[in-house]
């Protein structure tokens, strides 16, 4: 089977951890590179978390660190407990003797080199703020247009308004970068809160992870138990816990998992103020502006969770 080449840009984060494992354990994907971006926590923490995840599940992919802060605004404070704890990945004690190291190349250098060298188009999965992606598009516009097949984004929200504030973290965190990406003309698929807050797992899923009997399943169950507690207490309790970022990987692995989506024009608000970072989705196609994203509203939850279990079972 021909594998799909992907680059994952992330800020782990519990749900980024699930996204990484879903991708690394799936036989249909070839993960060429993992880049990190400041978001859930500062760049040092999210990079350290990425290396710990890879080492623990026995994967070895180049990890390159990228943007330390949003393109225009200063770094936004993420030193409170939040939904991911102070480390960004609270809930599991990773071994202290990790031999994996961050790449000498920056995220921008590594991603550009891979695009240049690749004979086929590469898919990006972005599960953090879009700072790295925005920089890449600004630095290498032609290369990006020629060599990127699609950018699968966990970000934004069309009409899911139960959160506080009502906009989604990744597009809010770097609104200007989000605008560059959404205006790039590169095919985009947006997995926002509309779909990710429907893709909830329950305790039985954690038991299935434990029952895999391997290290990866155990680590995921521990981390996701902690995440359920943090997320549902600090953020929002809908009677289950989301793994937002994994949705953006799942759709790349198998498009038929998407049960409902629609192409539309999505505008990113960047004016300073309470709406900065909001994704205004032209759901009813009234603006006359060209569609720039496929917005996903529903995934096949059972198959999605099974795909995560399958990937976790293939790792250490
Ligand atoms: C997004 O914000 C982060 O906390 C998660 O990792 C996810 O990427 C959800 O809004
Ligand atoms: Ca994330």
What attributes characterize this protein structure?
316 residues, alpha/beta, two-stranded antiparallel sheet, binds beta-D-ribofuranose, binds calcium ion
List the helices and strands and how they pair.
Elements: E1 4-10, H1 14-24, E2 29-36, H2 43-57, E3 63-65, H3 107-117, E4 122-126, H4 131-139, H5 141-147, E5 148-154, H6 169-173, H7 175-182, E6 188-191, H8 193-196, E7 200-201, H9 203-211, H10 215-235, E8 241-242, H11 244-253, E9 258-264, E10 266-268, E11 279-281, E12 293-299, H12 301-314
Parallel strand pairs: 1-2, 1-4, 2-3, 4-5, 5-6, 6-12
Antiparallel strand pairs: 7-8, 9-12, 10-11
Helix pairs in contact: 1-10, 1-11, 1-12, 4-5, 4-7, 9-10
The structure holds beta-D-ribofuranose and calcium ion.
Can you characterise this structure?
The protein is an alpha/beta fold. 39% of the residues lie in helices and 18% in strands. The protein is built from 12 helices and 12 strands. It has helices at residues 14-24, 43-57, 107-117, 131-139, 141-147, 169-173, 175-182, 193-196, 203-211, 215-235, 244-253, 301-314; strands spanning 4-10, 29-36, 63-65, 122-126, 148-154, 188-191, 200-201, 241-242, 258-264, 266-268, 279-281, 293-299. The strands form 3 sheets. Strands 3-2-1-4-5-6-12-9 form an 8-stranded mixed sheet, sandwiched between helices. Strands 7-8 form a two-stranded antiparallel sheet. Strand 1 (4-10), helix 1 and strand 2 (29-36) form a beta-alpha-beta unit. The longest helix is centred in the C-terminal third of the chain and has 21 residues, at 215-235. Bound molecules: beta-D-ribofuranose and calcium ion (CA).
């Amino acid at each position: 089977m021909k594998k799909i080449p992907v680059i994952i840009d992330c800020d782990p984060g519990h749900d980024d951890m699930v996204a990484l494992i879903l991708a690394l354990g799936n036989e249909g994907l070839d993960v060429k590179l993992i880049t990190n971006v400041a978001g859930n926590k500062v760049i040092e923490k999210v990079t350290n978390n990425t290396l710990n995840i890879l080492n623990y599940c026995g994967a070895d992919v180049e990890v390159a660190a990228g943007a330390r802060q949003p393109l225009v605004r200063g770094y936004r404070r993420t030193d409170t407990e939040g939904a991911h704890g102070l480390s960004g990945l609270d809930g599991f004690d990773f071994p202290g003797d990790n031999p994996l190291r961050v790449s000498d190349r920056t995220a921008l250098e590594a991603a550009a080199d891979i695009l240049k060298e690749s004979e086929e188009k590469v898919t990006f999965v972005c599960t953090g703020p879009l700072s790295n992606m925005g920089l890449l598009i600004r630095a290498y516009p032609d290369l990006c247009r020629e060599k990127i097949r699609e950018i699968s984004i966990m970000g934004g929200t069309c009409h899911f308004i139960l959160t506080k504030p009502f906009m989604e973290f990744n597009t809010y965190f770097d609104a200007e970068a989000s605008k560059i990406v959404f205006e790039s003309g590169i095919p985009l698929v947006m997995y926002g809160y509309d779909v990710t807050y429907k893709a909830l797992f329950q305790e039985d899923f954690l038991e299935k992870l434990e029952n895999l009997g391997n290290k990866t399943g155990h680590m995921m169950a521990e981390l996701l138990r902690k995440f359920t507690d943090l997320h549902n207490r600090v953020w929002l309790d809908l009677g289950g816990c989301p793994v937002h970022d994994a949705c953006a990987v799942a759709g790349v692995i198998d498009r038929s998992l998407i049960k409902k989506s629609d192409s539309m024009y999505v505008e990113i608000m960047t004016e300073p103020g309470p709406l900065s970072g909001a994704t205004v989705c032209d759901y009813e196609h009234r603006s006359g502006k060209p569609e720039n994203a496929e917005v996903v509203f529903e995934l096949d939850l059972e198959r999605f969770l099974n795909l995560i279990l399958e990937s976790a079972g293939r790792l250490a």
